[in-house]
Amino acid sequence: MSDSILDNFTKDLTVSKGEVGKRKIKVGIIGTGWIAQAHIHEYLKMDDVEIVAGADLVPGKAEEFFRTYGVEGVRCYPSHKEMIDSEKDLDAVSICTYNTQHAGPAIYALEHGINVMLEKPFTVTLDEAIQVMKAEKKSGKILTIGFQPRMSENMQMIQKIVDSGELGKVYYLQAGGGRRRGIPTPYGTTFIQKDTGGVGAVGDIGAYSLDMLLKAVGYPKPLTVTGYTSDYFGKDPAYYPNHPEYASVFGVDDFAAAFVRLEGGIVLDFRISWAMNMDTCGDALILGTKGGLRIPSTDCWNGEFNKPLTVYKQVAGRSVSYQVPLLPPPNAEDGLFYRKLRSFIDAVQIGGKATVPSSEIVYNQAIIDGICRSAACGKEVEITIPEI
Ligand SMILES: NC(=O)c1ccc[n+]([C@@H]2O[C@H](COP(=O)([O-])OP(=O)(O)OC[C@H]3O[C@@H](n4cnc5c(N)ncnc54)[C@H](O)[C@@H]3O)[C@@H](O)[C@H]2O)c1
């Protein structure tokens, strides 16, 4: 067999770079902070993407950002509004703003007929998510939410195992992970202030944790939540030896736990942490009538896992377990972040569907919202998701 035929087998394994000859997609980046670096890094690999505009509330920040990446001719604006009002040819925007500035820019972009890649978490509240979805529906444009762990074949294997029927009927989910010391302040305090972060660990890494399990079981609708949040570490000046002043601006949660009832007779036992006196809240577990699945926790929980999955079964009356080996990580050129943005641009090119649709993530957001509401009132709350 010739090499060229063998090569055909590898073609499906790679993600496109954007075929030459396709139309250039004109992209704007809203918010040029930490995560925008990952967006521009990946967009610059794509032949069919032209970054034409950027915006940031901090004067000069967008200009400096594009200078650092050597991208010339990008028109910079002081906010998403000026950018969208002035740029008439934008096909798409990456919204890389802090959480409380997700809904506003997303709605404004959709109302102006622009496709949206919105960073996670979807929003801060369920109500905001619903408003964004109404704008999405009215616009007919693509809205995809930035959950790059979904692009991992190892992550996809969790759903494949559930779908294969190997676990039988799933009835219990346990969210694990969490960080021992990992309040995200490397680039300042936007994650930890109420007016910018809006929610803490529960929205930041809790959203990943929920997505891992809920996606695997088909995103059942959440019904009720009993939630708890705390902020003992975030509010302690001793937590930040170099920046004790951060404690006084900490206005979100650093730990959350919850018990969630889902449609289909499934319950979810949830816990997440930016900081705690423990190495992990445990592995993530899926219990089914025919088998169980253990998804190993990682040290710095960021929505992925890096050790083999374990399946637990009864075989001929004996308890057995076996491991599902990890697939090798993608190479740097074709990493999860690249795939996330590439799949968005591909959808824009062909008028395709969002890879991470709001119709799923609204349930993720409803749980986060429910945990916060329940924690505030100290009792179980019902989740009602209005018709869009
Ligand atoms: N997918 C991932 O792996 C990942 C990783 C880190 C952060 N994030 C998400 O990305 C988002 C941004 O995080 P970050 O760490 O880059 O924050 P950041 O604070 O470093 O950057 C956000 C920037 O947005 C700007 N901004 C806010 N509102 C704006 C508006 N209306 N118009 C223009 N600019 C505006 C701010 O001035 C700031 O420079 C958060 O929602 C976070 O959860 C995702």
Adjacency order of strands in the biggest sheet: 14-13-12-11-7-10-9-8-15
Bound ions, cofactors and other small molecules, one mention each: nicotinamide-adenine-dinucleotide
Overall spatial form: globular
How many helices? The count is 12
CATH-level-2 architecture of the largest domain: 3-Layer(aba) Sandwich
Say how many strands there are.
15
**Highest CATH level, the class of the largest domain:** Alpha Beta
Going by CATH, what is the homologous superfamily of the largest domain? NAD(P)-binding Rossmann-like Domain
Notable characteristics:
single chain, 388 residues, alpha/beta, Rossmann fold, Dihydrodipicolinate Reductase, domain 2, 2 domains, nine-stranded mixed β-sheet, six-stranded parallel β-sheet, 31% helix, disordered N terminus, binds nicotinamide-adenine-dinucleotide
